[in-house]
Structure formats: structure tokens, C-alpha cells
Design a protein that fits this description.
Number of helices: 5
Oligomer: single chain
Protein name: Anterior gradient protein 2
CATH class of one domain: Alpha Beta
Order of helices and strands: HHEHHEEH
Strand order of the largest sheet: 2-1-3
Family: Belongs to the AGR family.
Keywords: Endoplasmic reticulum, Secreted, Signal
Organism: Pelecanus crispus (Dalmatian pelican)
GO molecular function: dystroglycan binding
Shape: globular
Strand content: 5-15%
Length: 172
Amino acid sequence: AMEKSYVSMFLLLVAVSCALAKDAAKETKETTVKPKLPQTLSRGWGDQLIWTQTYEEALFRSKHSNKPLMIIHHLDECPHSQALKKVFAESKDIQKLAEKFILLNLVYETTDKNLSPDGQYVPRILFIDPSLTVRADITGRYSNRLYAYEPSDISLLYSNMQKALKLLKTEL
């Protein structure tokens, strides 16, 4: 009975997405200007990863799953953010490791001052452990922007992600 309900649920989802796809195809033919695709929560940072929608949701999920939270602050019109996003999304190692995190990318500033310990610049990436502590000890290589990463820093970001996971096991 359980399998049957899964199968019918799956078929329903397929039918709905087919109907939506047909509607979407129809709309594209009718409009000459290509509509901008709706933004997914990944915003291009890794479409197959699970992203949270809000800071509050991310904190809650981090605390309850005992996974560290990785927050990426960026802006769509910032060339540095775009460059980092491209390298981040194309790195198989980063994408694989990112599955072990609660993920959030923000294109706006939060009111939480802990998320801008040394200023509000983009792109910046902070790690927060499940005790909801910002890991001020996991930084990039720039002394004037501690949480900034450039595309060339992707291996440093990878090792910082590993560090965030390791600290999780040793400290909690």
C-alpha cells in the first residue's frame, strides 16, 4: 500500500511538471522577449545542492541536524561574486563536500552583526557551527577582508570547509 501511494504521488508529480513544462513552452513562443528564469535558491552556486531560504531556517537546520552552516554573501551584479560562483559551482570537490553543510547564499545583508564581523563586503563566506557560533577562526587569506575568497582561493575554501567539518567533530 505504501509503495502504491509513492507510485501515485510520483505519477502525479510527473503529470504536474509535464503540464507546467507545456505552459512554460507555450509562454516562450508567445513572448518575443525571453522571460528571466525564476531564481532557484542555489542562485547558480550548485543547483543539485539543498539550499535554505532564510538565515533563520539555516540556523534551525544547522542546530537540529548537527551540520555546520556555510553562508555565502554575494551580489548578482558583482563581478567578484560572479567569478567565485562560477569556480564554486564547477568544482566537483567543493560541490561534493558542500553536501555535508547546511547551505545559504544571500544577496542581501542580514541584521545579524555576527555575519559581518569585519564589514559588509561581497563575496564573503562564513561558517557557523551547530551551537550557532560564527567560526571567526575559519578565514580566507586577506587580512583586510577576512572572509573573502577569490576564484584562485578555491582550494583554501575547500580546506576551510574540511576544517569546519573537523572542528564540528572535535568540539561538539
